[in-house]
Amino acid sequence: MDQLEFPLYGRVDAPSVAPEQWVRYCKTYREAVRAAWALRRIKGAKIADMARDMQFVAQHVGDWLAKDDGPKRRSLPAHRIPDFELYVGNSLVSQWLASHAKLTVLEEITATRAVA
Fold it and tell me: At the N or C end, where does the chain have fewer CB atoms within 10 A?
């Protein structure tokens, strides 16, 4: 079966593209990370589950997802974005980064098609 036959389920072999309104809603990188987590595919997943499954340090993940943006909070490192997006099931962080890099519409469409 073709994946396009099931538009409500999203991709299962890679992160799905997040709705554009969520990308626009996020004003900071940390907000994008928290929003990606809020939209996670496995709704019952806990921070400890992701840390265990993806070999992240649980305390670091706690910092990434903390609601306060204190100066001592760690942010999701760039090299861990693919693993994070694979776990949460959406590419909101990458989409947010692309939108803030001022990519052209054509470049964004090409990137979206590559993810989809």
Answer: N
pLDDT at 35: 96
pLDDT in the model for residue 110: 75
Q: Which amino acid is located at 91 in the chain?
A: S
More confident residue, 116 or 96: 96
**How far is it, in rounded angstroms, from Cα 35 to Cα 46?**
15
The CA-atom distances, in angstroms, between 71 and each of 11, 25, 28, 93, 113 are: 36, 22, 14, 20, 36
Residue 67 CB coordination number (10 Å): 8
- Render pLDDT for 17-29 as a digit per residue (tens, 0 to 9): 888 899 999 999 9
Q: CA end-to-end span of the chain, whole Å?
A: 16
How many domains does the chain fold into?
1
Is residue 29 exposed (0-12), middle (13-18) or buried (19+ Cβ within 10 Å)?
Answer: middle
Tokens of 91: 């590419």
